[in-house]
Amino acid sequence: MEAKLIEDRLLWNRFIATTPTGHLCQTYEWPEHSGEAASAGSLRVGVVEDGELLAAMLLVRSKAAGVPLPFFYAPRGPVCADPRSPALDLLIARAKREARKHGGFFIRAEPNVPQDDKLWADALRALGFHPTTHTIYLRGAWVTDLRPDEDKLLANMMTTWRQNIRAGGRKGVTVRVGSGEADLDAFYRLLKETGERDRFYVYPKDLFRDMLDHYSAEAAERDGTAEMALLIAEHEGTPIAAATVAVLGKWSWNLHSGSSGQPEHRKLRPNYLLQWECMRWAKAHGADYYDWRTIPDILEPGQELYGVYEFKRGFGGFERRVLPTQDLVLNPLVYWPYHAAVALRRNRQRQQRRAFEQKRKQEQAKEEPVEVAK
Fold first, then answer.
1. Domains of the chain: residue spans and CATH
2. pLDDT (tens digit, 9 = 90+) per residue, 267-326?
3. Helix axes 270-284, 159-170, angle to 10 degrees
4. Cβ neighbours, 10 Å, residue 85
5. Virtual CA dihedral for 58, 184, 246, 204, nearest 10 degrees?
6. Which of 245, 234, 318 is nearest to 281 (CA)?
7. Is there a cis peptide before residue 68, judged by omega within 30 degrees of 0?
8. Which residues of 135-144 are buried (b: 16+ CB within 10 A; e: fewer)?
9. How far apart are CA 67 and CA 338, in angstroms?
10. Helix (H, G, I), strand (E, B) or coil at 49
């Protein structure tokens, strides 16, 4: 059993796809669409025995605001079937050495492990990790079970959601799989419009182009990695909503989506039909579960992202939460002052975001009545 840096894409991706704690964000390609610095500085640490991986952790080299040193981030990692395995100890020991060698002052991990898994929590604590509230990828997600047939999936949805899916088709909304630069442009235009409307950061268009390339059907076949698609909802030939979806093993993810804010387009409610077609695409590509990703930490009206959560919940499914974010300190003299500064900044950002959400709700209430799920 040996811990080392891994360069074999197929070996890595097959392990990530078939291990219960595996995740899209731990695929070999994940940092390759995040810019030159992340791609060149990322580390893929694995434990190998008899030519097979037993544990793996992708560490993305990340910038720390106000600090000249990097930290290393394991999005939904580490990946290991059993936290009691000696492979996990070897993995973390090698990860610490590699991160220190490359100047890292801490490792941040957000494992793809259910929050009530005491074995994993105890194992990480014994390895030196401590929980932190400074999350990068929020712990909560909404998940729809895709294993039932389509009639049953529709029956599991809230009534209004089924009606909106069917109404979209009757009103002339169509959904197709996009390809080429023109479709990427349409998607990015809708995403930018949504980001400006809802005040969230939109990555440069090149990132999405790279993702579609790195997770193409050809790459998935060749490298055992995820497959990703861009779906576009149109009305009378005009793109009015678009989304990306990816599949790896039995899981799929709703990644990025945007829609037109024009009143005539909003009345068509294209996102319902669009997401239904994303789910159908994922199911056809072998997925058993559709991960809608982020939902609020507190599921109460008035909380940030609660409206997004209500939209996702209407499609049927269940709440899934993972372990808290975990930090492994490598340089305490740098880490703790940085940690305190980040806490102050995040508190200020939360206050600004709450004020914005309250103002936006007041504006939406004036525009149209609130739709109640039945």
1. 2-138+322-354 (3.40.630.30), 147-287 (3.40.630.30)
2. 999 999 999 999 999 999 999 999 999 998 888 888 888 989 999 999 999 999 999 999
3. 100
4. 16
5. 30
6. 245
7. no
8. eebbbbbbbb
9. 8
10. strand
